[in-house]
Design a protein that fits this description.
two-stranded antiparallel sheet
Length: 297
């Protein structure tokens, strides 16, 4: 039988990445946290964390952390069903959401979960191609991803797709694309990308103009909102979700530099456990995605 006080200490260290932060959250000393982890490691006869900066989980630690997440969610449901004041307590769910969804439509999901289900969301952001890593590690209970491959122990739901369009200010277009958007002009016009591993912009240029990574100048701005702000200053053109820049397209502040676009499907992966709370998260995410996203054929 697992001692869940020990498991809680291991989980806090894995989630927060340090003994100090875990101690602060649990209201105990770092030494006490370390002792609890050491005791549990002795009981299971294997290391559970790698004592690095930040702290990392071993494979056994990851499995234990994922188990604690499941148990914690089921416990919240039980407390919610009991006829006492604990039923009014906030529930919490950890999710991995790509930055573009968070900047456009997913806040509506969080709003409904809070208002209708008394639920607090603990959101981790990552590129939509890498959110599944957080799910595999057990850090989150559900993740939005562009990958449709089913993960062992998880369910998958199709959400819809986001339409990305290339936009810029008119003066930027006049300066860098006076004769239209061509491979030659794109190799000189500053773009803005989310990060060095941002494959969306590279895919757009490769598919439509046969331009490879490293053949165009770019700003690196790891923020969906920053993308739009940088574009509005005239520093660059950007490939952004159409629904994020629709107001600026309608008032003429930004315009599409060409009629090319990218449609990127999104999928919701969630742990396959019997949890009403997680089911509510999945159903609400699917419902709002259906209203906000492009339908996938």
């Amino acid at each position: 039988m697992l001692d869940y006080k020990l498991v809680e200490a291991v989980s806090a260290v894995i989630r927060l990445g340090s003994f100090e932060k875990a101690a602060q959250e649990l209201g105990m000393t770092q030494s006490a946290v370390s002792q609890r982890i050491k005791l549990l490691e002795e009981r299971v006869a294997q290391p559970l964390v790698v004592r690095s900066k930040p702290i990392k989980a071993t494979d056994a630690g990851t499995r234990l952390y994922r188990h604690f997440q499941h148990v914690n969610m089921l416990e919240q449901e039980i407390l919610n069903d009991l006829p006492d004041e604990q039923g009014d307590a906030f529930k919490r769910v950890a999710l991995a959401v790509n930055a573009d969804s968070l900047a456009t439509w997913f806040v509506r999901v969080a709003e409904v979960l809070f208002l209708d289900y008394n639920m607090l969301v603990d959101i981790s952001t990552a590129d939509e191609t890498r959110t599944l890593d957080l799910l595999k590690q057990g850090t989150v209970m559900a993740a939005i991803s562009t990958q449709d491959k089913r993960i062992q122990g998880c369910k998958i739901s199709t959400l819809g797709a986001m339409r990305y369009v290339p936009v810029a200010r008119l003066d930027f277009i006049s300066r860098y694309f006076p004769e239209g958007v061509t491979p030659a002009s794109l190799k000189k016009a500053p773009a803005v990308i989310f990060g060095r591993d941002d494959d969306l912009h590279q895919k757009f240029l490769k598919q439509n103009y046969r331009i490879s990574a490293g053949e165009f100048p770019c700003h690196v701005i790891p923020s969906s909102e920053g993308f739009v702000n940088v574009t509005r200053t005239g520093m660059a053109y950007a490939l952004v979700p159409e629904n994020q820049v629709r107001p600026y397209l309608e008032d003429g502040e930004l315009v599409k530099i060409c009629d090319k676009e990218i449609i990127r499907p999104l999928y919701l992966h969630s742990h396959n456990i019997d949890s009403r709370l997680l089911k509510s998260v999945v159903e609400m995410t699917k419902a709002i995605a259906q209203m906000e996203l492009v339908k996938v054929k």
